[in-house]
Amino acid sequence: MLSVLRRHRGYRRLFTAQVIALVGTGLATVALSLLAYDLAGSHAGSVLGTALAIKMVAYVGLAPLISALARQLPPRPLLVGADLVRAAVALVLPFVGAVWQVYALIFVLQAASATFTPAFQSLIPRLLPAEDDYTRALSLSRLAYDLEILFSPLLAAALLSRITYDWLFLGTVIGFLGSAALVLSAALPGPAAAPADGTPGFAARITRGTRVFLATPRLRALLALTLAIAAGGAMVMVNTIGYVRDHLGRATSDVPVALGAYGAGSIAAALLLPTLLRRASDHTLMLPAAFASAALLLALAALTRTGAGAWQWPVLLAIWCAFGVTESVIMTPTGRLIRRSASAADLNATFAAQFSLSHGCWLLTYPVAGWLGPAAGLAVVALVLGAVALGAALAAWRLWPAPDTSRLPHVHTTLAHGHPHLADAQPAGGGWRHTHEFVIDDLHDRWPLRPHHT
Known about the structure:
The chain is mainly alpha-helical. It is 73% helix and 4% strand. Strand 2 and strand 3 (431-437) form a beta hairpin. Helix 9 (217-247) packs parallel to helix 11 and helix 10 packs across helix 12. The longest helix has 32 residues, at 9-40. The two termini are 43 Å apart. The chain crosses the membrane at residues 14-37, 43-66, 167-188, 221-243, 255-273, 285-304, 310-330, 375-397. It is found in: Cell membrane. It is a multi-pass membrane protein. One of its GO terms (cellular component) is plasma membrane.
């Protein structure tokens, strides 16, 4: 997996920038929790919950808008500018004195992240055109996210034994500045080429990535798959403490052990996926993972109803580890599906749409996981989320055809004879028929499920 870092200097610098920024973000997460407690005391949980909601709203609402605004901008100033904004926010956070100021700064911070992440993701397939290299890069990226979840709290705990929490924000600032410096030093491609028929209007650019996403069967299925693993992930992220402390009556120190099992499962899957994806298709691996997420939730509901027992602790760890595996198996190959489904000009917009729509799935499952528990109990939460995951998995199975062929025959009925795109086409049915790698773009506005395509 590490061979891609040795062979590609530009990607190596971008990956290092991602890792440094992730460590800084992890330190900020810990520091923000302590800041919320200082400002709100016993209401710190509601402050953090609101901050998380603001994060999701920014991700869902702003990513397509920012992508449309930045469509023709060079990637380097876009990424560096986002890092500098994030560093500035982290620098100011220790000095706030009111909860509303935290909310305002978090919105700005997440708006910058909604700028950085899709632009960063869309660069990688352009830097690594070979499929194997890109798959390894996706697994490395997933591994970096998982290690950040495990490593950042440990680093924060070690630092807090010697410094106060407000200094952790300085670590965040250093992380974002380091990321910006590495992006500046990396050799990056220029702006993506404009669409074949010119640049569309601003309103069309806002919805362009979403239109590509929702018009492509495999991407519609990807959205359903994301909902399936969001159901399991929300159960883990929201209710781990409830299972460990309340249901099983174990010590607080066992909470990070359970979360560590979740992270370990995700890491193990990320390490194995480059090899597995050389032997099996994305379709073959991702669909069973969605059904597995549903089965795990339903098994968890049954387990919860049996009451607490010492034997349940290792079973819970195994289930949490399996949730991590299912999430990694679905999320890691996501970039491969997007690259296969979008033109170079639309990559940034399509990654922005995926960023927005996937966080919309989490925005749906987080409240179910958090609000239903106190009223109905953990067993009901697991049952409801299991039903959501099962419905999403069935939808993905219906939406994603097998085999998933990229080269598709189709007929153009509106392009005039002599159009450059029709150079290899043959007359057919009142139009021009040919076959090529098919994506939704200005010349292909819907998937050719019927014999004729306009």
